[in-house]
Amino acid sequence: WVSATTWVNSGQDIFTYDASSHELTHLGQLWNGTAWTNWYKTTHTWDAAGNNTSYVRLGWNTAGTNIINGDSCIYFYSKTTGIASLSTSPVNLVVYPNPTNNHINISLWISTPQTVSYILYNTIGQVINSQTLKNTDGNVITEMNFSQIPTGLYYLTVKGQGWVKTEKIIITQ
User: Fold this and answer.
1) 81-123, pLDDT tens digit by residue?
2) What Cα–Cα distance (Å) separates residue 2 from each residue in 6, 8, 12, 29?
3) Cβ count near 65 (within 10 Å)
4) Which of 56, 62, 96, 136 shows a CA-CA span of 20 to 30 A to 5?
5) Residue 1: predicted pLDDT
6) Ranges of residues in the chain whose predicted pLDDT is under 70
7) From CA 166, how far away is CA 157, in angstroms rounded?
8) What would you measure as the largest C-alpha separation in the chain, in angstroms?
């Protein structure tokens, strides 16, 4: 109150809602002594599932004549329908580094004990290098040395009981 008859610096909020009671707009106003002036306005949108999908807020100067700031946000929702298993195979193979200049590491996870063969072929199918590990299971890391093998493209085939995996290997010397 400035005097017994003048009311200043008071505010009011005006809301609108949709049929589902979601807030659509929120208008904040200030009384400047002679009239209500806009202070801010927030607008929301909603999807059919009742999720707030966007929001925009505008702010006016103290006279309520110019918009001086604002912000907005868009919301995205997704429905999880299931989570697939990353691997259903009883074998997981990772070969690194690739490309390589002198060796590779072969990281192999096997669920049951078995004999595993590593065979390196050139592009015309000739065996360049091979190794065999017996009673291998769990996580095994094997290193293959390529320091004497010429630059080129090769294929590493890893074989076990009832499975075969092949990876391209690039050797740079």
Assistant:
1) 555 545 556 788 888 888 888 888 888 888 888 899 999 999 9
2) 5, 7, 18, 19
3) 10
4) 62
5) 44
6) 1-9, 76-89
7) 4
8) 103
Mean pLDDT of the chain: 81
Residue 52: closest CA among 77, 78, 15, 27: 77
Q: Is 48 helix (H, G, I), strand (E, B) or coil?
A: coil
Structure tokens at 96: 């690194």
Res 9: pLDDT: 59
